[in-house]
Known about the structure:
By secondary structure, the protein is mainly α. The protein has helices at residues 2-49, 51-60, 84-114, 117-127, 133-140, 146-163.
Amino acid sequence: MQEGKKGELGEGVLKTVTAAVKKAVSEAMAEQKRQERQKTLYNTRKLMESYIEMQDFIRNAISEETEVQDTAFSVFGGENAKLDSIRKSKMKTAMMIANIDRAMEELKREHDQKGTAYKYEAFRMHYVDGIAYEEIAESLNCGKNSPATWTKLLLKQMSVKLFGINGIDHF
C-alpha cells in the first residue's frame, strides 16, 4: 500500500513542478515581450530625437569625389574616390527618414480626421522643429504638460507605423 502512495505522491509532485515550470516560462515570455516593446518605443523616441541630425547627415555627409570642392583634395581627382561605408550609412539614413516622413503624414491625416490636429502639431513642433514643450504650450495655448502627454501618445502610434506588430503594446 505504501508503494501506491509513493506513486501518487510522485505524480502530485510532477504535476506541481510541471505547473510551476509552465508558469515560469509564461512569465519569462511575457517579460521578454514587455522588454521588446520598451525597446521599440525607446528606438522610436531616439529616432525622432535624432530626426534633425539625420537630415543634416544626409545633406552634409561626403561620400563621393564629386562632392569635394576643396582644392586641397584635387590631388585625388580622377580616381573615382568613394567612401562606401558613408554611402551605405547615407542610404540607410535616407530610407529611415523616408519611413518617418511617411508615418508622420499618416499621423497628420489621422489626427486631422479626428479633429486632434493640435496633438500632431505638438509632436511635429517638438521633434521636427526642435521646440521645447514650454514654447509649444504657449504657442498652442494649452496646459504646460499637454504637449508632453500628446507627444508620448503619438510616439506610441509612430512606433506601430515604423515597426509594425513589434510596436503594439500588450501583444
